[in-house]
Amino acid sequence: MTVTSGKEPSVISSSSQTSQPSRSFISLKPTEQDFETALLNIIYTFEQTATSFKSLVHDPELSVYVNPPASDVVYALSRDVDEEEKAKQIPWPDSELLFGQDPDYQNDVGQIFHQIKDEVDNVLNYSKKFRKFCVMVDKSRRVDVDGSLKEREWNTEEFYAVLNQHTEEVLEMAKMTLHKRVGLFHVDITEFHKTCLPYPEKVLEGVARHLPVIAAKRNDVLLNVIKHASRKLDKMPETVEAFVEHLIFLSRMANEIASLEQEYHIVTRMYSIARNFEMSISAEELALYQTLMPSFQHLKSTILYCEAKKDENIQRYSRALDDLIGTVRRELVIIKNKVCSLVCWMLTISLKWPQRS
User: Fold this and answer.
1) Around Cβ 288, how many Cβ atoms within 10 Å?
2) Cα–Cα dist 6/24, whole Å
3) In angstroms, rounded to a whole number, what is the distance separating the alpha carbons of residues 195 and 130?
4) Cα 85 to chain center, whole Å?
5) Residue 5 CB: number of other CB atoms within 10 A?
6) How far apart (Å, rounded) are the C-alpha atoms in residues 281 and 264?
7) Section 251-277 average pLDDT
8) Span 217-228, pLDDT tens digits
9) What is the per-residue pLDDT across 133-147, written as a single tens digit (0 to 9) for each?
10) Diameter of the chain by CA atoms?
11) Could you name the domain of life of the organism this protein comes from (predicted)?
């Protein structure tokens, strides 16, 4: 007897449709009705075989042992030829007489069917312990990894919850007892196991396709932000204008470091989940991820250093700014004097130039 998992056709979902899969169930193969039919066929074959043997009374070879000799006058006088012909017309063995009207035989047949029913019920009771796997299958069928990730990106705990749940389901299914003797029957659940296992595995495969890609993209974006910020902060400004831009950028990074820290933890958590569940990550992506922690630590150290040196740099660039302002003032005075001299010269020339009457 084989235990199998069944399901009715389900509606395939798309971006504009919702999936409404039917519930999975356990079925026996062959079924109880199949057993009863097979048993009836066996009994029928037995009865047909039993009735296929001819009556020894009607066997011509044995007639000398059944009928009195023709010389027996008493037999000849009492012989009723018509009755003998009628008796020959009656089929023998008579299956109805031998089997249909035999109470002991009918009782034995009834007991056989009753025992088969009890044994099938025992198998059905045994199969109830596998209902939890049908629940697992139904839950897995409702998880559309590709469709869900198209709508929105999962957070790390959602990734972990889905992976953890369906990994446990796969491990539970792997522990199934594939063969067991239950009363008269040998129960084989190999087909049931093969039917159930692909559903949680499909979910795990879907997550394994997406999680490393998402983690790599977020890691790449975060690394670019970190390296760009580190380059700008590592470069000491040479002019007052550059120092002002430096202070503005430093203030912005000090405000954004918390969000960068959060993104850093998200990326590291994603890679941790991927490693824990033995997902395939390319060597290049793994090497790139391994540069994230030192790069981020360097950025934080740079921000702390720049914050610590900010007041000192402000004082230094303030003096430079004062010098610059003094230089600008001197240059303005020089320009002013040149302009005044030019104006005076032009006025002098205009006075000396003779005017026409």
Assistant:
1) 14
2) 6
3) 13
4) 80
5) 20
6) 18
7) 94
8) 999 999 999 999
9) 999 999 999 999 999
10) 197
11) Eukaryota
- Give the span between the Cα atoms of 5 and 190, in whole angstroms: 11
Residues 140/169, Cβ–Cβ less than 8 Å: yes
Average pLDDT over residues 44-61: 78
Give the C-alpha separation, 243 to 127, whole Å: 77
What angle in degrees, to the nearest 10, is found between the helix axes of 240-276 and 292-352?
A: 160
> Which two three-digit tokens encode residue 42?
């066996």
Q: In angstroms, how far is CA 284 from the centroid of its own chain?
A: 26
For strand 185-188 and strand 25-29, is the pairing parallel, antiparallel, or unpaired?
A: unpaired
Q: Using CA atoms of 244, 246, 248, 254 in order, give the dihedral in degrees to the nearest 10.
A: -150
Of 295, 290, 286, 305, residue with least CA distance to 227? 295
Helix (H), strand (E), coil (C) string for the chain: CEEEEECCCCCCCCCCCCCCCCCCEEEEECCHHHHHHHHHHHHHHHHHHHHCCCCHHHCHHHHHHHCCCCCCHHHHHHCCHHHHHHHHHCCCCCHHHHHHCCHHHHHHHHHHHHHHHHHHHHHHHHHHHHHHHHHHHHHHHCCCHHHHHHHCCCCHHHHHHHHHHHHHHHHHHHCCCCEEEECCEEEECHHHHHHHCHHHHHHHHHHHHHHHHHHHHHHHHHHHHHHHHHHHHHCCCCCHHHHHHHHHHHHHHHHHHHHHHHHHHHHHHHHHHHHHCCCCCCHHHHHHHHCHHHHHHHHHHHHHHHHHHHHHHHHHHHHHHHHHHHHHHHHHHHHHHHHHHHHHHHHHHHHHCCCCC
Sign of CA pseudo-dihedral 244, 249, 255, 258: negative
CB 191 within 8 A of CB 133: no
What residues does 185 pair with on adjacent strands? 182
C-alpha 317: how far from its chain's center? Answer: 60
What is the chain's length? 357
Cα gap 333→80, rounded to integer Å: 165
Pick left, alpha or beta for residue 106 (phi over 0 → left; psi -120 to 50 → alpha; otherwise beta).
alpha
